[in-house]
Amino acid sequence: MPHIIPIRDLKDTAAIAQLCNSSKEPIFITKNGYGEMVIMSMKFYEERILMQDVYEKLTEAEDDIHAKKTTDAHSALHELRARHGL
């Protein structure tokens, strides 16, 4: 279940930092009952960015297969690694 807190609770920065570090999902901040912003721990953010990068590369490999630029998944991954210096 997502954490949703009012913006006035941001005054207690120590508690917010603890909540961010103990949560494995973003924390939604509301203002006057409406969504205002989202916060998360640096660790969670870095994991999300890494996974986003992986998904983008997988999508690129799938696109190559569908466009017949390569004949199989193994070749697609090899070409993808070469393009990205992996």
Per-chain topology:
Layout: E1 3-6, H1 13-22, E2 27-31, E3 34-39, H2 42-66, H3 73-84
Parallel strand pairs: 1-2
Antiparallel strand pairs: 2-3
What is the beta-strand fraction?
15-25%
Whole-angstrom Rg? 20 Å
The H/E string reads EHEEHH
Residue share in helix: 40-55%
The overall average pLDDT, rounded, is 86
Q: Poorly predicted ranges (pLDDT <50, ≥5 residues)?
A: none
The best one-word shape is elongated
Number of DSSP helices? 3
What does this entry look like structurally?
The structure is a single chain. The protein is an alpha+beta fold. It folds into two domains: 3-40, YefM-like fold, CATH 3.40.1620; 44-84. The chain contains three helices and three strands. It has helices spanning 13-22, 42-66, 73-84; strands at residues 3-6, 27-31, 34-39. It has a three-stranded mixed β-sheet, with no helix packed on it. The chain is elongated.
Describe the structure concisely for a colleague:
This protein has helices spanning 13-22, 42-66, 73-84; strands at residues 3-6, 27-31, 34-39. It is an alpha+beta fold.
